[in-house]
Design goal:
Layout: E1 16-17, H1 37-40, H2 44-59, E2 72-73, H3 82-92, E3 98-99, H4 107-111, H5 119-141, H6 148-171, E4 175-177, E5 190-192, H7 194-208, H8 224-236, H9 238-242, H10 247-258, E6 282-286, H11 298-305, H12 313-317, E7 326-327, H13 330-333, E8 346-347, E9 366-367, E10 392-396, H14 397-409, H15 416-431, H16 445-456, H17 462-468, H18 502-507
Parallel strand pairs: 1-2
Antiparallel strand pairs: 3-7, 4-5, 6-10, 8-9
Length: 517
């Protein structure tokens, strides 16, 4: 079993009602058995367990797992899981994934026909604000500490709050804004503009970066390398977020990552199997354990929903469940050299390349990227047939290589030959030799966008990438069933942002709907 930071389930003071209006929570329960911050935090170990709950908000959805005692009332724990919703927003809306199920409005994601009343969009917004709320509380209770380790915990909490807000910045643009300075009580949080939210996240990351632990000091925790990756991603997308090119800053933020203790794994699959915590290129992951962190969302969803048709779930994936849901489109498949590129992890037996009906699992190639077996083929340590040990790679070194190359090509400075070298390192791993390497003249923005799809598909980057390249909505690039048309059509550019959920607008008069909704 992985030596993950322990998930602490006592700290939550009760279920969180998903709304922007902050209720009066500044009370001490009459029941002495109810745990609150005034009675919980006595030792350094207590604070570390409290910090673990903040990490858990991104991976699991409740206090017991896989269901029961949910963090947020009114949202199914599996559907409302943070990673599951973030993945759906980033992948189902693009050329990389389709889902056959008829769960509520989920098919509106791929067709890009969602509305402000979409329950899945509301769930994503609520998960972001829930993570922010718990982080704020932890930051408040550690405000007066002078103990070095607890100060590091506090910096990690600030990073996790910045991470959640960065997802809000990317998905919604503007957000309700609360920090540790907003004490619990009845008030309507103010709306923060996209420009101001960008500046806030940047300032937080710059301030806490040196307060975090050194790169790779403990697996699954935010450290200086992790902060550098998030800062680099902020700068890489700055033209979209705030209309300013920050590619030189992106390169500078990547330097400690590229010069850090990370290495490209010998095998591409190493980052997507049950022992991917041993992959040398993992920078930051959302950790899962088949016994300790159980959920119907997260990696359980991504891994099981990709299995169906003629696949043997146990033999190939180390799990007994096949949910027959997720596949990909021909637009992604056609970017690969299917005969030579080892990253072409597609299941074709019994599957058609083209999709006439999104609701039929056998239409569209299936994906075999994530597995609940170890790299050597052994079953995962937990030997749990349904819940999995596979971690989700939020940041890994291959992404840093491609970010550097893109920033160089976009005029951010850096070293052109180094950028080419980084790309060719990845392609040599993919092809097994130098046959896949490219020349300097071939290192174009168009190539980089396609290479990011080949290297990083299903890792939660595609929507953001397509928007940065002007191809998500009204660009020249279309894919099957974009715009709810079989061959794909352009859609309105206002869908580069999701709508502010209707229930949030009702709950908080300070919020304003995004343009076009």
């Amino acid at each position: 079993m992985k030596n993950n930071i322990k998930i602490w389930l006592i700290i939550a003071l009760g279920s969180f009602v998903a709304a922007s209006c902050v209720g009066d929570l500044d009370v001490i329960p009459l029941d002495p058995n109810v745990a609150v911050s005034e009675t919980v935090y006595n030792t350094t170990a207590d604070y570390k367990e409290g910090l673990a709950k903040l990490y858990a908000t991104f991976a699991i959805s409740g206090q017991r797992g896989p269901d029961g005692l949910p963090d947020i009332e009114g949202i199914d724990e599996g559907f409302g899981n943070y990673l599951r919703q973030y993945w759906n927003h980033q992948e189902l809306t693009t050329d990389e994934a389709v889902l056959s199920w008829n769960d509520a409005t989920i098919k509106d994601f791929h067709s890009q026909t969602w509305t402000a009343t979409d329950g899945f969009i509301a769930a994503m917004h609520s998960r972001i604000m829930y993570s922010v709320a718990l982080s704020n509380e932890f930051i408040r209770v550690t405000a007066d500490t002078e103990e070095e380790e607890i100060l590091r915990f506090r910096a990690e909490a600030r990073f996790l709050r910045a991470l959640a807000y960065s997802h809000g910045l990317d998905l919604f643009g503007t957000m309700p804004f609360v920090t540790e300075e907003n004490l619990p009580g009845a008030f309507f949080p103010e709306r923060i503009s996209r420009e101001d939210l960008f500046a806030y996240i940047e300032s937080e990351l710059l301030e806490i970066r040196d307060q975090l632990g050194p790169a790779k000091f403990e697996y699954g925790r935010a450290d200086q390398g992790v902060a550098g990756m998030l800062l680099a991603k902020l700068y890489l997308n700055a033209e979209v977020y705030v209309g300013q090119a920050r590619y030189a800053d992106c390169i500078a933020a990547l330097e400690p990552v590229l010069n850090g203790p990370y290495q490209i794994a010998d095998q591409y699959l190493h980052s997507f199997v049950a022992d991917n915590h041993t992959s040398p290129e993992m920078i930051f992951s959302l950790t899962y354990d088949g016994v300790e962190t159980q959920t119907w969302g997260g990696m359980v969803y991504i891994l099981h929903a990709q299995i169906g048709g003629t696949m043997n779930a146990i033999e190939m994936f180390g799990t007994s469940d096949a949910w027959s849901g997720l596949r990909t489109t021909s637009a992604l498949v056609n970017k690969f050299d299917m005969d030579s590129d080892s990253r072409a992890l597609f299941w074709t037996d019994g599957q058609s390349l083209e999709i006439d009906d999104v609701g039929i699992f056998s239409q569209g190639y299936a994906i075999t990227k994530f597995r609940n077996r170890k790299l050597n083929g052994d079953l995962s340590d937990s030997n749990h047939n349904v819940q999995v040990d596979t971690d989700f790679p939020l940041f890994r070194l291959a992404d840093a290589y491609l970010m550097y190359a893109e920033a160089v090509v976009r005029g951010g400075g850096g070293d052109q030959s180094q950028a080419l070298s980084y790309v060719n390192i990845l392609r040599e791993r993919a092809f097994g030799d130098a046959s896949g390497q490219i020349t300097s003249s071939e290192l174009t923005l168009e190539f980089i966008l396609d290479e990011r799809a080949r290297e990083l598909f299903w890792e939660g980057h595609r929507r953001t990438d397509l928007i940065r390249f002007g191809q998500f909505t009204d660009g020249d690039y279309v894919w099957p069933w974009k715009g709810n048309v079989a061959e794909g059509v352009k859609t309105s550019s206002h869908r580069d942002l999701f709508p502010v959920p209707a229930n949030q607008l009702t709950a908080n008069p300070n919020l304003i709907q995004n343009q076009g909704y």
